[in-house]
Design brief:
Elements: E1 6-9, E2 12-15, E3 27-31, H1 37-53, E4 72-78, E5 81-89, E6 98-107, H2 123-138, E7 143-149, H3 153-166, E8 171-179, E9 190-197
Parallel strand pairs: 6-7
Antiparallel strand pairs: 1-2, 2-3, 3-4, 4-5, 5-6, 7-9, 8-9
């Protein structure tokens, strides 16, 4: 897979439209919100407007977001228009000094959301992850993880294995389900996890509550 991303300003990364096949291609920019207020405000406005434009089953996760609350943000663009986003998120409920990447991963209803394809790791998504991992290192996190609901467990396992092969980082996958939020009664809170440990002293897995234990 041919990937291109570069730092075009301090803590601002960019990838052009991918040259490899991608059913939902987009340019990707990743940045620290406090450093790039115009990009952050653009995303805040976009998120507010989703209330009127989308009926996604998880729309509450994407509308009316304040992107200043996230450690870093990625935005997807086509023809200079926002068509999606993803964030880096840290919270007290997660292991110390860890961050959830590809968090609030949203793809525009009109431009990026299509019927099922067999693509495991699309170039646009891959560029986003690599950019976010650069920011993870810049911000001195010990670990970065991605999680997904158990209903998509087979695809997610393949996705993490593909990242392990292609990304240049060592990824570890566990099915769980692990509790990702304090609401134990919500089935969506129980998820599988893939993680990159950037600090060998990180004791990432011992932290999580697992439904099977």
């Amino acid at each position: 897979m041919h990937l291109t991303y570069k730092e075009i300003d301090d803590n601002l990364f960019h990838s052009p439209l991918p040259t490899d096949y991608d059913s939902r291609p987009a340019e990707v920019y990743s940045f620290v919100p406090s450093q790039y207020k115009s990009l952050t405000e653009e995303l805040n406005t976009y998120s507010e407007e989703l209330y009127y434009k989308d009926t996604h089953r998880l729309l509450n996760n994407y509308k009316f977001l304040n992107f200043y609350e996230f450690s870093f943000v990625s935005v997807f663009k086509q023809d200079k228009k926002v068509v999606g986003f993803a964030t880096g998120y840290e919270r007290d409920f997660y292991p110390k000094n860890s961050v959830r990447i590809l968090n609030r991963y949203y793809q525009d209803k009109t431009n990026l959301r299509i019927d099922f394809t067999r693509e495991i790791l699309r170039p646009t998504t891959f560029n986003c992850i690599l950019q976010q991992l650069e920011l993870v290192k810049r911000l001195n996190f010990d670990s970065a993880f991605i999680s997904r609901e158990i209903r998509a467990v087979k695809f997610f396992e393949k996705f993490i294995k593909k990242l392990d092969i292609e990304s240049g980082y060592s990824w570890e996958y566990k099915k769980g389900p692990f509790l990702l939020s304090p609401n134990q009664q919500d089935e969506k809170s129980w998820q599988s996890i893939g993680v990159v440990n950037l600090n060998n002293k990180s004791d990432f897995w011992s932290y999580w509550k697992c439904k099977q234990s």
